[in-house]
Write a structure and sequence with these properties.
The protein is built from 16 helices and twelve strands. The protein is α/β, with parallel strands linked by helices. The longest helix is centred in the C-terminal third of the chain and has 37 residues, at 356-392.
Amino acid sequence: MNREGRGATTPITTGTPAPTTFTGNHALELEEGLLFEIGRTEVTGVDIEDAGDFTSRLGGHERKLSLDLPGLAEPEAMRHYVRLSRQNYGIDSGLFPLGSCTMKHNPRLNEKMARLPGFADVHPLQPASTVQGALGVIKELSRWLLSLTGMQAVAFTPKAGAHGELCGMMAIKAAHIANGQKRDIVLVPESAHGTNPATAALIGYQVKSIPARADGTVDVESVKAALSPQVAALMLTNPNTCGLFERDVVEIADAVHAAGAYFYADGANFNAILGKVKVGELGVDAMHINLHKTFSTPHGGGGPGAGPVVLSAALAPFAPVPAVVTDGESLRLVEEEGEAGADQALGRMSAFHGQMGMFVRALSWMLSHGADGMQQASEDAVLSANYIRACLKDVMSVPYGERPAMHEALFDDAWLEGTGLSTLDIAKALIDEGYHPMTVYFPLVVHGAMLIEPTESESKASLDLFIGALRDLAFAAKAGEKERFLGAPHYAPRRRLDETRAARAPVLRWTRPPLAEAAE
């Protein structure tokens, strides 16, 4: 038996190496080349008739040469993408411990609802009279979000979190302009998500950093000292990126408002306080909500996402269009700023009204949980995070151990001192154990950070297995078993990549390998 009482597997350094196979496959672990390597230009899974003679409308800008793109027959195309999917890791494969991105179970009920023809087949240019059901979903979702946050208005246009930040900050800028004020500074804590300062800078603000206290929270006095008539807003994440609740948030909000500025809250961590705290009562003026995180549907792979923004009474008039309003017994979209109900709207942020599929999934999750179920989800998320921290703090170091965690457990790399190993080595070895690594090296205020968010979706059994894997890695690291880590991952389809080189000198164009050219 191994250290955690589970049946031990064959150590990496012993045993007979697996023989090389002709195909490169290892049983059900199938090797799959790039489409450029296995495809043929003369093959396609779809028959397209020749266009024949026609008059181009491109004014001489049409392509002169063949595309020369590789293709596959239909069965080959299906196998290609299925094989690639088998090399991926997702929430349906196992626990997804990313600490910066809530990756919870997505109930299939959500998918069934989102695929109903009345939602899946609607077109954004249909007359409002033909999409009353879809507009009704948006209206009902709005009611739930406003009830959960204690805010006055919600804008559904934003497609995801960063887009939501942009929306909220644009509303703040529009409010200052309407009041005849020119403010050009935004305060951002040093532990903030990187999108916060990026969003502020994008729309022309100077960013001023606010330091954290030794306990990982924002220093109220530092905020007060930084406030001035030039400050437009404070952008604060609560719970913060260290997994801690900002206990002085009301005092911070009061100081910000007294200076004539607005309080923007990053809602990425709303999963920790859903049904427990109404952010409007904390003094928040704007907050984006990641429907694809807090209200299910993990957002790995780039989407789909949705980042509606809730606004206080002070900012509600500046929400972007379009907006759903009640018109007698029916619903309609306010499409232009200046219309009744959108007199001070900041304008249109995108062509249409957000991501309909995400609206349906989120409302489905809300209705299936109910108010009490959503509150329990937050309680369970916080319980799971504290359970992980309690079970690992004797073998891994906790930077802010004196305070309970919220929805995520944060560790630093102090426990690795003297081992010759780094946070990255632990993350890569975790891949060999069958897990996607936790968030590493973030937040930046913690050296060698390892941030773990189990969410409420995981059972105690799955948490115990994950904890056992990390404890085993910790014991191995402290026992000097460096070969287990420095070459990891050993069992993944690909070994460790040079991530620094990949970021600094990315190869964006495939070229045929020299050996393949010589063989032709």
